Each structure stands twice: as structure tokens, then as C-alpha cells.
């Protein structure tokens, strides 16, 4: 059974309404159509300490999230756009994932090798393409593999205040991008499970 973990890097704690939550759930639903089961975590609900170690001690709750990242086959990384950039929560998650560069599996491969990543970006301002590019680079650096067209996003009209979860329905373009993300990511995860990367 292929599994997915969606990390919601909204700045809004639960149960506050979150556009990132909505798009991530749509991705999880689309993955479900390909036999993938998944769950979503809102990172800001946890005490994730700054740092670049797997465990920063003193009440750091990242280790529990890390365990769920390692247990999942697919990581769906979701962030809102703030001032043209990913959220500070998203940046902190990337910094914590940096610790995995020094971890290897039993075959000597980086521990995240063979896991698939996909991205979701929402915001009522420009920035989704740059954020997606930054996420692709960072997630690839720590070992994830990104499928073709594995990013979905929604940008609202510039200088307006309508959010994704204010829309009455999902735009066709977003639905299509989400469906493609799910189809390609599920396919890639199955391929990597059957044919892992070679050991060094």
C-alpha cells in the first residue's frame, strides 16, 4: 500500500480555515483515486524548533513528524505565499530536512532516496512558480524524487484579498494540475518501490 503525508506549512493554527489545507486535501483525495492513502499535518500545531539536527531536544516535536515523513512513500509539501516567498514554517521544515543528508539506509543510500515529493502553493499574490522551483531544488537536494508536473498551485488576482478557500468551486486548471500531480506521483512511487535506486 502506497502512503502519503501532506505537510501543511500554513501560518494559521488549527482549526482556523486554511487555503493550504483545502488544496492539500484535494491532492490527498486525488492520490486516493490511485490507491494511495494519506494524512495531513499542520506543522504550526507542533513545537518544531529551529535547527538542522534531526532532534533539537528540549521539547522539540520535529522527531515525531520526521518519523511520519520517513514512513510515507510520498511527501506532499504545501505552503502559502507570503510576500512572494514560501512561509517561514515551510523554510523551517526544509532546514530540518537538511539533517537527513547525513543519514543513510542499509544499502548506503541517502535515507530519503526512493521517496517521492510533490508541492502545493496557494496565495492571493504572485510567487507560486518561484516557490515551486525552490521546493523542487531543496527536496531534490535531500533525496526526494519529483515526478513530472508534480506541482499544483493557485494564485489569486494580484492586489486583491480573495483566498483559495473563498472560491465557490475549484478552477478547472487547478483540478487538472492536481489530478496530474496525483497520477504521476503515484506512478513514480510504485516504480521506485519496485526498482530502487542502485546502492553506491
Automatic annotation (TrEMBL):
Residue ranges occupied by any NADPH-dependent FMN reductase-like domain in the UniProt entry: 4-148
Classification via InterPro entries: Flavoprotein-like_sf, FMN_Rdtase-like_dom
Gene3D superfamilies attached to this UniProt entry: 3.40.50.360
One family name in Pfam for this protein: FMN_red
GO molecular function: oxidoreductase activity
Protein's recorded name: Multimeric flavodoxin WrbA
Organism: Microbacterium kyungheense
Amino acid at each position: 500500500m502506497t502512503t502519503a503525508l501532506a505537510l501543511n506549512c500554513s501560518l494559521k493554527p488549527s482549526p482556523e480555515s486554511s487555503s493550504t489545507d483545502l488544496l492539500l486535501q484535494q491532492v490527498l483525495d486525488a492520490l486516493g483515486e490511485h490507491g494511495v492513502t494519506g494524512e495531513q499535518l499542520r506543522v504550526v500545531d507542533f513545537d518544531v524548533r529551529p535547527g538542522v539536527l534531526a532532534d533539537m531536544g528540549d521539547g522539540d516535536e520535529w522527531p515525531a513528524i520526521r518519523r511520519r515523513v520517513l514512513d510515507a512513500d510520498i511527501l506532499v509539501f504545501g505552503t502559502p505565499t507570503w510576500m512572494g516567498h514560501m512561509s517561514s514554517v515551510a523554510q523551517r521544515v526544509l532546514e530540518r530536512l537538511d539533517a537527513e543528508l547525513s543519514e543513510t539506509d542499509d544499502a548506503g543510500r541517502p535515507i530519503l532516496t526512493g521517496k517521492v515529493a510533490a508541492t502545493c502553493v496557494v496565495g492571493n499574490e504572485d510567487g507560486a512558480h518561484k516557490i515551486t522551483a525552490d521546493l523542487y531544488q531543496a527536496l531534490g537536494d535531500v533525496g526526494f524524487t519529483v515526478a513530472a508536473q508534480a506541482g499544483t498551485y493557485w494564485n489569486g488576482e494580484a492586489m486583491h484579498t480573495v483566498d483559495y478557500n473563498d472560491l465557490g468551486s475549484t478552477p478547472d486548471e487547478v483540478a487538472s494540475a492536481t489530478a496530474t500531480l496525483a497520477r504521476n506521483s503515484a506512478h513514480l512511487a510504485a516504480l521506485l518501490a519496485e526498482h530502487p535506486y542502485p546502492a553506491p
